[in-house]
Amino acid sequence: MNALDGAASVASSHHREEDAILIRPNYKDKFKPSVVQAIIRQVLVEQLSGKAYSADECSAWTRDIADTIRARLKNLALDRYKYMVQVVIGEMHGEGARMNCRCFWDPDTDNLAQDTFTNDSLFCVAVAFGVFNY
Question: Nearest Cα to 133, choosing from 59, 82, 63?
Fold first, then answer.
């Protein structure tokens, strides 16, 4: 083996390391619930402050809120993450409400964040799921 073969072998192995597929995201590229919760909180306050419950408008509000949250999550530029956003708006009657979910996912890469908004006439729960696409 001559010097040129050795250099080509080193260059080839270095090139393969750069092209390696990441199986897991780096720590800085993971879905961070605290960051996402702040985004959800901001959107809920922007979209619902000063509004009173209206059964006729709730469908449009939930769609707008979910779309806005999802767009802001995409702006985080977390490569290979898929986002699902669920928004529920209900009329405030002083009753309790429970919301639950079950997910089958990788606890090392996938996560969720949620926040609630309430005023005198309505409540809103928004949940954002971030799932790493292998």
Answer: 82
Give, as one character, the DSSP assignment of residue 18: H
pTM here is: 0.81
Any idea what the Cα angle at residue 125 is, between residues 124 and 127, rounded to 5°? 145
In the numeric block, which tokens belong to residue 39?
């985004």
Helices and strands (DSSP H and E) totals, the chain: 3, 3
User: Could you tell me the two tokens for 38?
Assistant: 């702040």
- Taking the C-alpha atoms of residue 6 and residue 67, their distance in angstroms, rounded to an integer, is 54
Distance, CA of 21 to CA of 112 (rounded, Å) = 25
The answer to whether 60 and 97 have CB atoms below 8 angstroms apart is: no
The answer to whether the beta carbons of residues 125 and 114 sit under 8 Å apart is yes
Among candidate residues 86, 9, 5, the one with its CA nearest the CA of residue 40 = 86
Contact 102, 110 (CB under 8 A): no
pLDDT tens for residues 43-70? 999 999 999 999 999 999 999 999 999 9
Q: Given strand 111-118, what is the order of strands in its sheet?
A: 81-91, 122-132, 111-118
